[in-house]
Amino acid sequence: MKAKPVAHESVPKTLRSVSIIGTGSYLPKRVLTNADLAKVMDTTDEWITTRTGIKERHIAAADQATSDLAAEAARRALRQAGLAAEDLDMIIVATVTPDMFFPSTACFVQKAIGAGNAVCFDLEAACSGFLFALETARQYVGSGAITTALVIGADKLSAITDWEDRATCVLFGDGAGAAIIRSRPGVRGIIATAMASDGNLGHLLSMPGGGSRNPATAQTVKDRLHFLKMAGKEVFKYAVGSMLSVAKEALKKANMTMADVDCVIPHQANMRIIRAIGERLGSPMEKYYINLDRTGNMSAASIPVALDEAVRAGFIKHGAIVLMMAFGGGFTSGATLLEWRKPEPSQRVSAKDVSRVRVSNAQKRRFSTNASNLW
Ligand code: UT7
């Protein structure tokens, strides 16, 4: 089965334009360096740096779950957008490390930030999760079914990392990134998205234990099935090919070339993958925002954390065309092109703006009505 990217038109006839109006991110305090790892396993800073580009990663505290990281990123995004939690109509959390199977991590975030008007659910597309969730939310906001969505990519990969497998444990870290989206008339916002999946390759990157295929037993624990397993070399090849494919598809739909792109936010898995992509797309590394040296691969959190840092550092300027691209377990891949605009004061709404809360509730009712018409 050859995955064909599903591309979404650059100017959809049925959708209004949708923009990111605020971003936020959170990295846990504890930093684990390559030197720290070399003290406890058979590895070296030199091996990890030359093979991946990673120097250190953040590790969540034992009592910090994915929703704790996500809620902090959400609060920061709300502050940047000038919105209150009750302005949110929808929360989607992309993650492979939910707090529990259920309730959803998005529901935990809702409770933590007090987003009482939001419909909340999780989405699982591994490292492509944030871009898949962004596109899902865009469909709701773009259709007018809702006004405001919070999209989060959050993962506590340290919870599913096999610290006895040096081939994988040096690669990953924990973190969360968030984006708030709304329609902004006259602003292009998200220009085009391309997404693809190839279920035939799922076995190359998976966590086999704990689900309905291998429910948790003493034996599954003994067999270390509750840890992430990866065939690194095969994943590497897929990563380069699939990200190129979705990036080209998104550019095509937008009638753009790489020359039109000012900044690239790639999935932060491996510097060698990013360089290979840059070479094949013919775009210089100066356009790429890189933080994997400080964060490692944080799965669904990698892109939104990098996006937030790049915006706050001024790497992404007002009016810039940004290309985000990811690949991950499933397999999945996604690319999103957008025009970045700073949030404008006129868009900001006070938490005490009663009329806004009323609009939000009305939207929620409309959303329920539309949904009930489906069955
Ligand atoms: O979000 C999706 C995430 N996944 C990825 O992006 C991963 C994509 N794959 C990769 O990034 C690379 O395949 C890795 C970084 C995981 C591995 O790099 P590689 O160049 O493919 O190395 P390898 O797996 O072929 O291993 C080469 C050698 C082996 O030793 P021998 O058999 O040649 O003697 C490994 O045992 O390196 C050894 N090795 C290590 N040595 C020191 C594996 N891990 C380590 C380590 N420290 N941590």
Keywords:
5-stranded mixed β-sheet; 375 residues; alpha+beta; binds oxa(dethia)-CoA; Peroxisomal Thiolase, Chain A, domain 1
Give a short synopsis of this structure.
Helix 3 packs across helix 4 and helix 8 (232-253) packs parallel to helix 9 (271-281). A five-stranded mixed β-sheet has the order 1-9-14-13-12. With 375 residues, the protein is an alpha+beta fold.
Shape type:
globular
Extract low-pLDDT stretches: 348-375
Distance between the termini: 32 Å
Q: Could you state the CATH homologous superfamily?
A: Thiolase/Chalcone synthase
Q: Proportion of β residues?
A: 15-25%
Instruction: Please compute the radius of gyration using only Cα atoms.
Output: 20 Å
**Helix content percent band:** 25-40%
Number of contiguous helices:
12
Q: Main sheet? A: 5 strands, mixed
